[in-house]
């Protein structure tokens, strides 16, 4: 049989090894039907196979197995998808794909992977969608019309449904495999019924109550907010003030000491002067020392440690004298003072003790407005001091803010000029006013300031269940571990959860109210309401007349109306654990969800599930996405990057066209470009998105395709029967090592480490070493090697990261590798399901690789010197002479017959340079590494002539080398 190598001009292209007598194609090399860049029109069919088809296959094939459940933290059904969505959903998808392959790291294991259950969900209620619904009902002149709850709910439902479909389409384009047919929405009737039953269970346990108390209130949204719905702005600007309240009476124990003092005042400091009309007490601390100073004809009570600051701030141009010093705060209790803002309705108000008072700021005396402060409310309620909040839903003063002349304050916004007007009324009792920059809560939806305001709201008793909730976290794995203390701190700091919202678009709180406005919330009444919703639909809660008797349980007597408050959306999504069967294996969301969904899920689960464990076994958090300058992405700044821009390559510099006839080269690499970016990020911290990182990943993805193209075109079935060389064994050993490293990284959810390991292996071990050394054998030798092993290993490692690429490569596999069985697909097969074919020990392999790398590096250094002087072009023009230590020589002997192939030179000898003293040129380099002692490498001209077939310099002049002569001639 004679062989000939020639270019193939057929449509498939490539280089062929053919039998010249029969014209039979023996070894097709470098098939070009797998393109270096994907054809975008072909991508949907590959996407279908690696998403829906794969999910359905594993669901059916492994139906009897215990599932791995990744529970979806529902994205909000409002607006287009952004880069944060991509990071979140792709990380989840990678986890699922890893589990499909999962079989541990046993080299002989051949067990099937896990059955994964991933059912996507959407959070559909809430203010932003309702605001959009309201905007749709505005007339052209901006006035609101037909703002009834029924219309709002109808439009909001339509908006949410459209957003869900749009987002679902985007998720699927990213290669997210999931049970899309069972995707749930918080506005689904079945979800709402389950949510109401969780509420019922909590109410039955006495964990739900209604109370008039201060809550975070958003004037811009006109609703109460929970802590999780706040954003804190560090540079909020307020007008702080020092105000003197006139003291009206002293307890007997102080009358002798203070009785002779005229015009005695208590100085307080506030950053919210608008709360002064609601002042009902002043707090001191029992253990602090206080003093009385005189300025002109007035006397002032202030903490001793704050005296210097108060004198500087309040009396900068006046002299002051200390009249009474070192009075314990405990002796001041019982003092009564006058709040001028209450006018004729004013009654004596007390000075009391509060633990939170300190001498770190202000005057050491704290103004208490129990209607506008959580701490104020707690300390005042214990003493029977009632809360007042003369502020309406829009954040404006009511008539009761200044009863003597309601028109002065009524209607003024407390967040704009209301506070200034209050200070004007107080006149000379205001000792100082100045601008104060501080941290302040904002509505996370409208990005506008909130206030604290007492209203009638529904609350969940978190304090009763939080200890158990925290204990359940003991068995949870946190990634990163810092998430544990963060979540625990949020749980620990909560005692109550404001659950009610004053909105129409949501799940109603199932409460009835009697003729006196007293709420009814019994197990029987809630059960009846849930049953009625099942029969009539949830919208009937709003469409029925207020007194419709169908909603009233049989045991209730009298007339009742339905409440219109809806549940906090965090309660909606927080009860989504009802969508899973048992404890979820993984929750994964952004780090902001420690105070959001993670917390609400844990608290509702601890309250109503009856289980002592958490709803999740592993809790993973990722950071925020930033631009390449480290700034948070914002539409207003203009630094937002859309996922589609990464997929279509539009963010990358244009590719230069070399041929005039060629059209522009598309930079689009599709979903895999987006996925590789997400996988390569250390998501445990904030993630940077910009041209440098995208360009790096773009280059890596093109390298994957180039390597795959070469593997597809070079591997053939006959290689399976060809004996392994030492080079093959090294390649297999390196393949095993990188697969173990990648699998370990994947199992630890450190995908970026897996990507780094793949890239390093491709660049160092595969591309620059094995494939380079294999070219001669593929083109001119027996065509053997372990390319099939490498192809399958690479496919398995890339399958969770770039599934579309793997599917495309698998579709282009040679016919002899093709099979109709899905379980043979790399995405379905365990990482290690084939025997390890290396006979040498790991220690011996490491020694061999260490030797080869060290010597090869020295050879390349010497060759570069020869190239710099234009003495050599191809590395095959060189021979290598080694001067080795005894330790190195023992390794050399084992590898000697393949070193020329490994170094891609014509020959390698271990002898003294003196034997080559007549060479035309020589270049020397030292072998680095203390392990080998001092060893030298010389690169010299090749000894023989160039073989016209294989191009090695090992042949007589104008003749084939011995190997090629044997191959070409009839065997």
Helix/strand layout:
Blueprint lengths: L2 E5 L7 E5 L5 E5 L13 H19 L5 E5 L11 H19 L13 E3 L3 E2 L4 H9 L13 H25 L10 E2 L3 H16 L3 E11 L4 E3 L4 E20 L2 H7 L5 E7 L10 E4 L4 E7 L2 E6 L3 H8 L6 E8 L7 E2 L11 E5 L12 E3 L5 H9 L35 H9 L3 E14 L7 E11 L4 H7 L4 E3 L2 H11 L3 E3 L1 E2 L10 E2 L5 E2 L2 H14 L3 H4 L17 E2 L3 E2 L1 H6 L9 E7 L6 H12 L7 E7 L2 E3 L15 H5 L23 H9 L7 E3 L1 H24 L11 H22 L3 H30 L6 H12 L4 H9 L30 H27 L9 E6 L2 H18 L3 E4 L12 E4 L9 E6 L20 H7 L3
Helix pairs in contact: 1-22, 2-17, 3-4, 5-12, 17-18, 18-20, 18-21, 19-20, 19-21, 23-24
Largest sheet: 10 strands, mixed
Number of helices: 25
Provide mean pLDDT, rounded.
87
Relevant CATH superfamily of the domain at 233-441: Valyl/Leucyl/Isoleucyl-tRNA synthetase, editing domain
Shape: elongated
Low-confidence stretches: 1-28, 104-111
Please report the total strand number as a whole number: 35
Radius of gyration: 38 Å
Tell me the name of the CATH class of the domain at 233-441: Alpha Beta
Q: How is the CATH topology of the domain at 233-441 named? A: Isoleucyl-tRNA Synthetase, domain 2
What percent of residues adopt helix (DSSP H or I)?
25-40%
* Structural class by sheet pairing and helices: alpha/beta
Proportion of residues in extended strands: 15-25%
Separation of termini?
A: 6 Å
CATH architecture of the domain at 233-441: Alpha-Beta Complex
